Amino acid sequence: MSLYIKSEKTNQIAKKTRNYRNLHKWVAIPLLIFLFNTGVTGLLLGWKKEAQLLPELQKGITSQPKEWISLKEIDSISKEYWAQQNKKNVFISRIDIRPEMGIAKILYKNNFMELQIDCKTGKILSTSKRNSDFIEKLHDGSIIDYLFKNDKKAFKLGYTTLLSIGLITLSISGFFLWWNPIRMRKKNREKKD
After folding, report:
1. Calpha distance 124→66 (Å, rounded)
2. For residue 6, what pLDDT band results from cuts at 50, 70 and 90?
3. What residues contact 54, with CB distance under 8 A and at least 6 apart?
4. Measured on CA atoms in the order 162, 168, 169, 170, is the torsion positive or negative?
5. Average pLDDT over residues 101-128
6. pTM for the model
7. pLDDT for the residue 8
8. Rounded to an integer, what distance in angstroms lies between the CA atom of residue 187 and that of residue 145?
9. How far is CA 66 from CA 35, 43, 60, 70, 115, in A?
């Protein structure tokens, strides 16, 4: 009688394993491109400094804030630069002050450029493309919202939710695809004893 019960349990585990395999396959196949994109871009973001995806940090004249020009002047310098480039509607996303370097990094909402400005003189030290920002938008799916100028970030939220649920599902089903054969071998050994 006990041999029959153990055999029936092994069959139940095998059936569950087939179900997990099907779930794993049908979640993984549609998400394959997104998972590959997330893996590659995540690797690049992890190595962004080493891969030189960020502009090199410049050094200003002084790190003493009392000698610096105002943020309003930095903003004006940025706007003047873009006016000279015949670019209109360039909006600042943020101004990143690096006190130890004596510079302000200006990042923009609608392009992947960065200006580095000396906080004392207002001189533009560097104009560079921020490749890491583009890669970050690819990584989290917000590139679609960026291209269609969607401020609500609907695609990013849907993308990250779908990808996260998919990864959780793949992790759980993958665990049982590994664990259930171990359980079945153990049950078969018990049956032989």
Report:
1. 19
2. low
3. 48, 130, 131, 132
4. positive
5. 96
6. 0.80
7. 81
8. 52
9. 49, 40, 14, 10, 22
